[in-house]
Amino acid sequence: MINKELLDKIEFGFKEISSDEKGAKYHVEIKVPMDLGFIERMKLITETIVVYDNGESKIKRNANQMHFVRKDDEYVYFEQEVYLETKAMYNYYFSFEANHDFVYFKKNNRDNYKSVSNDEMWKMSVNFKVPDWAQGKMMYQIFVDRFNRGSKEPLKEMPNRYIHKDWHEDIIVGPQPEHHDLWCTDYYGGDLKGVTEKLDYIKSLGVSIIYLCPIVYAQSNHRYDASDYEVVDPYVGCNEDLKELCDKAHSMGIHIVLDSVFNHTGNDSKYFNQFNTFPELGAYQSKDSKYFPFYKYADNHFWHWWGQDSKPECDGKSKAWQDYIYGEGGIIDQWFKLGIDGLRLDVADNLTDEFIEGIRRAVRRNKPDGLIMGEVWKNPMSIYRGRSYLSSGKGMDTIMDYLIMNALIRYYKYGENDFLNHIIKEVMREYPEETINSLMNFTSTHDISRVLNILGSNEMHYNGDWAWDPNSGDNHWYQKDVILSREEYEQAKKIYKSYLLALTCLPGTLSIFYGDEIGMEGLGNLSNRRPMEWDNIDYGILNNVKKMGKLRNDNKFLEKAGLKILNINPKTFSFVRKLDNKEAYVLVSRVGTREKVEIPEEYKDAEIEYRIDDSSKEELSEYGGIVLKKTL
C-alpha cells in the first residue's frame, strides 16, 4: 500500500528551454521521496486533442520516459527534455513503479492511485496566452444604435432607413411601415461619439472592457450584414470617431473589442450589390466581379446564412476573401490601426478553423496582446465536435459562456443543481485555464431576453434548448408588449442580486449588457434592444452593479483564481476561489426564504468581504449571499 502523505511530497517542474510558433521544448524534473521505495519506470504522460482534416478527432497520448539522474538522502530525481506542439491545452500526469507497485501520480484523489481521470490531471498550455487585460475583468456590451447619441447633428435621410422621431419612441419589431420586406431598419442614432461621451459612466461601473456590436456600414440597425467593412456606418459616425473613442478609452484603462462578422455580408453591399446600390460590379451582378470569389456559389445559386436572402454566405476557403479580411493591409489591419484591442467573432462555428487561424495571425501582428473571442454556444473543446479553433492554440482565445450561463439561470429558475454541477465541472475540466479566466459571463446579450425578464417572469420555455427561450418563440409583436408586473419586477430584482453575486465571483469576465445595470426590460431578441433609458434608472440595481464591479476590482486575485465547488443543492450554491495565499468562500441562495447555513470550519474566522442585505455566517437573507475572504 502506497502512503498518500509521501505522494503529497512529490515535487516536479517544467522549464521552457526554447520555443517557436510550432511548439516548445521543456526540461521536466520530478523528485520522489526515497521512503516510497525503489522507484523505476518513471513516465510523463501527456494527452491532447488532435483534429484531422476530415473532421475526425481523437485524444493523442504520449508517454515520455523520464531518466534517473541522481538521489540524495531524501529524494530520487528524474528528468527529461520534452517537445510539445503548440496547443491550447494538454492534460498530463506521471506514472511510476514503487517497489513494483504501479502508481499514477496526479493532481488529486491520490488515495486511488491505480487509475486516473481527466478531472485528476494537471493542465498546461503551449504557446497559448490570453491577454492579461481580458482575464477576470468586467465588460460592458453596447448595441450602439440604442446606447447614446453624442452628435448634435440630425440624422440624414438614407434609402430604406426609418429614423425615429425621438429617443423615446417605441421600437419597431416587425417590418418597416413603408417597406414591408425590411426588418431591423429603424434607427435612433446612437453613435460612437455617444459612447465616448459616456466613458466616465461606464468606468464608474468598474468596467475595463467595452464590447461594441458591429459598427461598419451595413443595411440594418444591428449591422450584422455589412455593406462596406472599410468604413464606419454614417449613422454611427466615421473612422476618426472610432479612433477618438479608442484613444480616450485607453487613457482611462479601458480596452475596446469590436464585433466582426466574416461569415456573411449583406446582399445590399458593395460586395454583393443585389440592388445596384453601389457603383462597382457586385458578385450578384456578374461572375466577372472581383467580389464573386468572396461568396459560396454552387448549382447556379449563392448560399445564404440560415436561408436568409439578405445574408449571402462568404467562402472561408477563398484566397480572395482571406486576403481581403486578414491579409496584409486587409480589414483587420485597418481596424486595428484605428486602435481597437480585440475582436468578437460572430457565428464562429460557421467559420473554418483555417480562417480563424488567419484572423489570429492578423490580430497578433497588429497587437501582440490582441483578443479573439468567439460566439460559440456549445463546448468548443469537445472531441465530438471535430473543431480545432480553440484547442489548436492558433485560433480563438476564449468564447461567450453560454453553457454555464444557461445552467446558472436554470438553477436559479428551476433549482437544477445537478445540471449546474455537471456543466461547471465539464467546463473546468475541458477548457484551457486562461480561456476559463476570460469567458464572457453575461447578464444578457443582444440575442436573448434581458436578465430581469428571464429571472422574474413565467415567459420562458422550461423545455427550450436554452433557459432564455421564450414560450412565445419568435412572436415579436407579443413580446414587445410584455412588461413585468410590479411584483414580478421586485422579485426579479431580489433574484438578480444573488445571481449577479454568483456571476461576479465565478471565473471569467463579468459582462453587463447595456441597460441591465439600470433595470431595463425586454422579452425576446428584438424587444431587448430598446434605447437606453437614461431618464428611468433603477438606482438600486445600478448601485448593486457598481458594488459588484468594486468587489471584482478590489480582489484582483479573483482574475485568475482556481475554482472548487463545495456544494450545490436545491437552495444554496457554495464554492471557493483560491490563488496562492488568498481565498474567497462564496455562498449564495436561490430561494425567497431565510436559510440557516453551516460555514465550513476553515472559513468561520474569515472576514466578511461582501454580503447581500443582512446575510451572515449563520443565516442567509431571502435570495441572500455572502463572500468571506482570508489570507493564508
Structural account:
This protein has 632 residues and is of the alpha/beta class. Among the domains are: 4-126, Sandwich (Immunoglobulin-like); 264-313, no CATH class; 561-631, Golgi alpha-mannosidase II (Immunoglobulin-like). The protein has 15 helices and 32 strands. An 8-stranded parallel sheet has the order 23-22-21-18-15-10-25-24. The protein is globular and about 85 Å long. The chain starts with a helix and ends with a strand. The mean pLDDT is 97.
Total strands: the figure is 32
In helices, the fraction of residues equals 10-25%
What are the low-pLDDT stretches, counting only 5+ consecutive residues below 50? Answer: none
How can the largest sheet be summarized?
Answer: 8 strands, parallel
CATH topology of the domain at 4-126: the name is Immunoglobulin-like
For the biggest β-sheet, the strand order reads 23-22-21-18-15-10-25-24
Q: Residue-averaged pLDDT, rounded? A: 97
- Globally, the shape reads globular
Number of helices: 15
Radius of gyration: 26 Å
User: For the terminal residues, how far apart are their CA atoms?
Assistant: 33 Å
Name the CATH architecture of the domain at 4-126. Answer: Sandwich
Q: Output the structural class.
A: alpha/beta
Q: What is the level 1 CATH name of the domain at 4-126?
A: Mainly Beta
Instruction: Please identify which CATH superfamily of the domain at 4-126 we are dealing with.
Output: Immunoglobulins
Strand fraction band? 25-35%
